[in-house]
């Protein structure tokens, strides 16, 4: 089993920034990828950003390109999501995902962008 602990969500004004963190622990043998998804009320969960362990390649949803940056600390098994220029439409519960021996999810952290 892999446990994912997220932190860093909260309330921020439009144009502001937040950084989410996700630390993986447990039976981690080989992490293939870690990423962030989000789910807004009444909408499906969607991919926000992912980083592949092998070469550090990243992929972003079009809606966050240029504003969000995903990064990782391999030694700490931690992935980060730096979110800048936040918009009200970024409001959602953000979930960390880890793909290793299986696909694992964090409990989610609320991000609210509102004035």
Task: Give an account of the 3D structure.
- It is built from no helices and 11 strands.
- The chain has 115 residues and is mainly beta.
- The N and C termini lie far apart (40 Å).
How is the main sheet built? 7 strands, mixed
Task: Tell me the distance between the termini.
Answer: 40 Å
Question: What is the overall shape?
Answer: globular
> Number of DSSP helices?
0
- Classify the secondary structure makeup into a structural class: mainly beta
Return residue spans where pLDDT drops below 50 for at least 5 consecutive residues.
none
* Mean pLDDT level: 94
Radius of gyration: 13 Å
Helical residue percent band: under 10%
Number of DSSP E strands: 11
Order of helices and strands: EEEEEEEEEEE
The percent range for strand residues is over 45%
Tag the structure with descriptive keywords.
single chain, 115 residues, mainly beta, 7-stranded mixed β-sheet, 4-stranded antiparallel β-sheet, 11 strands, 0% helix
């Amino acid at each position: 089993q892999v446990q994912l602990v997220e932190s860093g969500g909260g309330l921020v004004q439009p144009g502001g920034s937040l950084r989410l963190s996700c630390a993986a622990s447990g039976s981690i043998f080989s992490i293939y990828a870690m990423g962030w998804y989000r789910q807004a009320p009444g909408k499906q969960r969607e991919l926000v950003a992912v980083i592949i362990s092998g070469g550090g390649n990243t992929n972003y949803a079009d809606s966050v390109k240029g504003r969000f940056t995903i990064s990782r600390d391999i030694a700490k098994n931690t992935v980060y999501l730096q979110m800048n220029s936040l918009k009200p439409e970024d409001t959602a519960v953000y979930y960390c995902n880890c793909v290793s021996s299986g696909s694992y999810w964090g409990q989610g952290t609320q991000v609210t962008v509102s004035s």
